[in-house]
Design brief:
Elements (H helix, E strand, L loop, with lengths): L2 E3 L6 E3 L3 E2 L13 H13 L4 E3 L8 H10 L8 E6 L1 E5 L2 E4 L3 H14 L5 E7 L3 H4 L2 H12 L3 E7 L6 H5 L6 E7 L11 H8 L2 E5 L28 H17 L7 H10 L6 E2 L6 H8 L1 H4 L4
Parallel strand pairs: 3-4, 4-5, 5-8, 8-9, 9-10, 10-11, 11-12
Antiparallel strand pairs: 1-2, 6-7
Helix pairs in contact: 1-2, 1-10, 3-5
Pfam family, one: Aldo_ket_red
GO molecular function: oxidoreductase activity
InterPro entries: AKR_Detox_Biosynth (IPR050523), NAD(P)_OxRdtase_dom_sf (IPR036812), NADP_OxRdtase_dom (IPR023210)
Length: about 300
């Protein structure tokens, strides 16, 4: 495993993290605690130290799985990033809630679910600019930093070209940007990444496998069940993506190299990117993701 400094936080994070949206049940299956334990244990074994979750991955469900695991392990082994700004109601249904006092309730609920006194990174979660521009929100969050509940603040931008929030990161005391970035979606390279580099912000690339399309498992014409979030994607757009994936696989992925590992390493080649946070459904996928660290220097 390789490690990089996460912007101004001075945290050294593994270049491969563990994305945990799937633990909330919106990716076609429900998880049990032993299954989550096995995934996280395998991550630790591979040298991974970064876990990314959110309050709305199943109404703190993902956080609870992680917290129940952490309670039986060494908290200091992990850098835990979570998010705020949404209330989960049922599968695929959320409402935005960014009022300062409600965010404090969300933070306390996250700390309780995670069985910890602090989170390493607390991220504004894909909120609108109007909510972002509320000075009272950031004043309230700074007080939580001073109280020791939050080590660092970050922004998970909803649009991968949201320069407004990215440019204002230092102003609101945020040290990290989380953004969608992958071989099929390179928009952050144009404006967001240069801004991150100017401010020395850490960058977490989410959806680095393009919702699994870059895993190499799906051929043009593939369909997804109604319980899978990809079932909600536009059919024509999905087909075009799968056709592009086939082209990339034939023309860009070296022979004998796993496409998913290649896609993660491809993201990490950009100098602005600190780490990728792919999801993983089982320990075997954790191992496959971790192998991407070995490919970075050879691409």
């Amino acid at each position: 495993m390789k490690y990089r400094r996460l912007g101004k936080t001075e945290l050294d994070v593994s270049v491969i993290g563990l994305g945990t949206w799937q633990f909330g049940g919106e990716w076609g299956r429900a998880y049990t605690q032993p299954e989550v334990d096995a995934i996280l244990d395998k991550g630790k074994e591979q040298g991974i130290n970064l876990i990314d979750t959110a309050e709305c991955y199943g109404d703190h469900l993902s956080e609870s799985f992680i917290g129940n695991y952490i309670a039986r392990r060494n908290r200091e082994d992990w850098i835990i990033a979570t998010k705020f700004g949404h209330h989960f109601h049922e599968r695929f249904t959320r409402t935005d809630v960014f009022e300062p006092q409600d965010v404090i309730k969300q933070l306390d609920a996250s700390l309780k679910a995670l069985h910890t006194d602090y989170v390493d990174l607390y991220q504004f979660h894909s909120g609108p600019d109007q909510a972002f521009d509320n000075d009272a929100l950031w004043t309230t969050l700074d007080k939580q930093v001073q109280a020791g509940k939050i080590r660092h603040l970050g922004i998970s931008i909803g649009s991968n070209d949201n320069l407004h929030q990215t440019d204002a990161s230092t102003q609101v005391n945020a040290s990290v940007i989380q953004v969608v970035y992958n071989r099929l979606d390179r928009i952050p390279e144009e404006r967001v990444f240069p801004s991150c580099e100017r401010q020395d912000l850490g960058v977490l690339a989410r959806v680095p496998l393009a919702s699994g399309y870059l895993s190499g498992k799906y051929k043009p014409g593939a369909t997804f069940s109604e319980t899978d979030v990809r079932h909600r994607h536009d059919l024509k757009s999905t087909e075009l993506k799968l056709q592009e994936v086939e082209r990339i696989k034939q023309n860009e992925v070296p022979a004998g190299v796993d496409m998913a590992s290649w896609a993660l390493a491809w993201c990490l080649k950009h100098p602005a990117v600190t780490a990728v946070i792919p999801g993983c459904k089982d320990p075997e996928q954790v191992v496959a993701n971790a192998k991407a660290a070995e490919l970075i220097d050879s691409l």
